[in-house]
Request: fold
Amino acid sequence: MKRSMTMQSSYIGHQVLKTILSLTQGLYHRRLIKCSKNPRHAQVNILKKILATNARTEFGKHHGFKRINDVNDFRKAVAIHRYEDLRSYIERQELTGESCLTSASPVYYHRTSGTVGEPKNIPVTKSGLTRIKQHQQLSAYTASKGSEIFRGKVFGITGQAIEGRMAGGTPFGSASGLIYQNQSKLVRARYVLPPEVSEIENYETRYIVMAIYGLAEPFVTCIGTANPSTLIRLLSVINQNIDLILDSIAAGRLPDTFPRIAKSDSDLSPNAQRAEYLRTRCIDIEKLTFSDIWPELKGIVTWTGGSCAVPLRRLTGLLPDNHMIIELGYVASEVRGTVNVDVRNNLCLPTLMDTYFEFVERESWEQDTGDFLSLHELEDGREYYVFVTTSEGLYRYDMNDIVRVTGMLNETPIFAFVQKGKGVTNITGEKLHEAQVLNAVMATLEERDIQSNFFIMLADQEDAGYTLYVETASTTDRIETELSNALERYLRAANIEYDGKRASGRLASLVVRWLPNGTGDKYRSYCVSNGQRDAQFKYLHLQYAHECSFDFNALALSR
Reply:
């Protein structure tokens, strides 16, 4: 009786939510689809708007925004920028309040890992927060229109809303967490996890608390998380701590040794029946799956491209039948690149009314050649590097992301994320840079007086971890474990995302393998024989394992 009442209440709430989303987002959805019929016009309009809005900034005056009349003028006046080119503008605007990059002052910063040791802080203005919320609501509208995922409760995992404050006092953190924290009562009532859960610093504790709240709610129909590897990790934590989790559900409170979170006592109610049901399932099948925990689950909203395809394959068989996998879209700290406008076909349309896009064909950019292309000039099936201009002060910003055009919606190309570009790998969101690897490896080897003429680190998406191969003339000091631990310390200090993914267990421990003297020369000869120009050959010290056809394991010294 109680379950049927809960389901009926959720159904009514779902209908109310669908109606509100239709009223508030239907018009925006129709406008976006209409703009897709003439992407060139839409892109010119947003570029003009961005330049006009920020023409009086220091950056705008220096680059003559007022004198720019078209795309060609823009490309002549403004060079390609990376974060380090803009860091001084961002930090000075934060400290002084001067209009360095944007006319409006930032009210928030996305924090993510940077190429160097210092993190990147991506500015977000008040209107920028409004756009982020708009894009999230539009995604919810299309999901509610094309699926039943909001019929019950939503198990949504976000980052911490406020992780700290900049030197000028402006908060930084995860904007998705900030919006999650400030949802309306109607929307909040559908979420399983209290926002405060994301503030728990200890990752193991945080996962256990998420599991307690999640398993206590049987009628979950939607999971939302950026990276599906989080779900693999969550299921592992559930099965490793099942007695603690079920005891907490039966008692209706978190373990006494756990940190208290706001409203924890009122959010959890004793539910011995639910705990006993799950305990019985564990006895029957030994390990719970998401099918056992949430049999009514209708879909997962997550990334599906790049390295995320690997954990998604691992989830096969762990989910209820007839579930949907809904693409979250091309989303980065710097920009919301696409929104899913058709969840049944996972058609992710570029945010062409909010962001100005440029592209260079992948092979051309990697060979330092090629022309910049606008959105309407892309070809189906081709891969491109992405450059964005936003209202938040990023001008011709090199995302170092590779996307593939997967089709067309009207006259606008649909594109999907493939992977990070040259010199960056990303298995679970760590975005490890080659410069970070070079600094860590060289410092670690130098400290131990280990001589090496060649090394390479490979990112293995299947095993969710990294292997460092080091050429050495001597095999007497094979201290793989100690060297691995030292490298981990360097990388975790240099990259906050790598540190977080290692702490949460989503990334495996780094492995070190020794290579015999001369391996680097063999690798170079192999690359040249396969088409690379000898005169222009450059060692890439950080690569994906699946993109490196040279078999280093065959030459690695036995341990």
